[in-house]
Design goal:
The chain is α+β, with helices and mostly antiparallel strands. It is built from 7 helices and 9 strands.
Length: 231
């Protein structure tokens, strides 16, 4: 007979915060100061408190463990993770949040973490505590998908940028080279993605490059599919 007892569990939040730094996709990680997995690398996160909703818990944990203000970030729910053995302390279900933002400050470890740092994606692959590796993999794929369907990549660029600057963001996040002419053609044909400023940037060598700013569109129609503009 199936066990019909109501399951008692604890609810947690975890955060995958991504940014582009030094031409690489970075993730915000902490060194845990508490058991289990004390001293190991993990995503920021923690347990929901009685008077909190999920977003409040995510913002509080981010501030406590890294010093970053989650209220200034666009946090979106990624997925829920509830495998029975995902946490050695008992049955814990975690609601993961994703944020993708440019120019985020250096984090400062808080009371629940020994350290906090932006770390290149490759340096933490396969090394995260709990099931945070799976959460991070899902977050990165969501970020890559958002670049296909939204104008988010332009937010990673300075106020005025070249098409080459924009293409570089896509190449960093997608981890693949893109054909410059094909990419430029698709960006130019997407209404509201970028707007010419009328100015140019003079490179050290070669022809000056036209400068653009982010346009009013927030979704891409048609989308910029990865398999449509790869080199």
């Amino acid at each position: 007979m199936a066990d019909r007892d109501h399951l008692r569990l604890r609810l947690a939040v975890d955060l995958a915060i991504l940014t582009v730094r030094d031409n690489l996709l970075h993730v915000l990680v902490i060194e845990r100061d508490n058991e289990p997995y004390r001293g190991q690398t993990a995503l920021p996160g923690g347990f929901l408190r009685a008077a909190e909703d999920l977003r409040e818990a995510a913002e509080r944990e981010l501030a406590e463990e890294t010093g970053l203000d989650g209220g200034l970030l666009h946090l979106e729910q990624l997925a829920a993770y509830g495998a029975p053995d995902r946490d050695p302390r008992g049955r814990v279900v975690s609601v993961a949040y994703l944020a993708i933002a440019p120019d985020l400050p250096i984090p400062v470890a808080g009371s629940d973490a020994r350290s906090a740092a932006w770390t290149p994606l490759d340096e933490v692959s396969g090394k995260l505590a709990f099931d945070h590796g799976q959460i991070l993999d899902d977050a990165v794929e969501r970020a890559r998908n958002r670049l296909e369907y939204t104008t988010l990549a332009a937010a990673f660029c300075p106020p005025e940028f070249t098409i080459s600057d924009l293409r570089h963001v896509y190449e960093v996040v997608w981890r693949m080279p893109l054909d410059p002419r094909n990419f430029s053609r698709k960006v130019a044909s997407t209404s509201g993605f970028v707007v010419p400023t009328g100015a140019q940037r003079a490179p050290g060598t070669g022809r000056p490059a036209a400068l653009y700013r982010r346009g009013p569109a927030r979704t891409l129609n048609p989308p910029l599919m990865r398999n449509g503009i790869e080199a």
